[in-house]
Give the backbone structure.
Amino acid sequence: MNGQKKRQLKTYLILAVLSALLARVFCSDADSHPTTDVCSTNTILPGPKGEKGERGNPGEIGKLGKEGPMGMKGEKGDPADVGDQGMIGKIGPIGTKGEKGCKGLSGPAGGKGKAVIAGIRETDEKYYYIVKEERSYRDALTHCRIRGGTLAMPRDEASNSLIADYISKSGLFRVFIGVNDVEKEGQFMYTDNTPLQNYSSWKESEPNDASGHEDCVEMLSSGAWNDVECHLTIYFVCEFMKKKKTDLQRA
Ligand SMILES: [Ca+2]
Ligand SMILES: [Ca+2]
């Protein structure tokens, strides 16, 4: 229907144009000829305005428009969460040596030094050592005892020779040994209160109890014994029993 009306309107327009052209041709000719009624009265006027046409069909979808200009810069975002702890880094190079520290405070005074010992001698059963400090018989005996021993008690030629050699090799002349007659004059005993038995090594003419108070005994570097006064202060020789292994230790 709509298409038909368009075609009709088109036809009317064509006819109207043609009529106007024909009228113009004929009337132009009439100018040179006697005027006719046709040209003077047959004027073509436009028709009345038609009614409003129907609404047209919607057009096709248009093309995509151009890309718009860049927008304004946005606001700063919120800070992100703290990330996981990273791996431990490599060990750094060794640092330079530090400066020397200040000198420390002086320490407390040391105790009395160890006794000067002229080496040590030993047998299968005992240790011997000569103490190169001059002591009375009593002090010498105490020195040996507080260390677990006693003044040396030579009970045979072997042990007596060992001690004698020890004295002479140490460049000494005399030392106290553990023999005395303090308890009963003339009855010499070892420091463990056992009497002299089958062995002694008295120097010739000794013991003589010269001053009437020679109740302690020294050994000379020759191995000979001599009774002397106990308050003399001379070097001395200690002896210590070697610890015997117990049955438990043997096991
Ligand atoms: Ca005596
Ligand atoms: Ca004497």
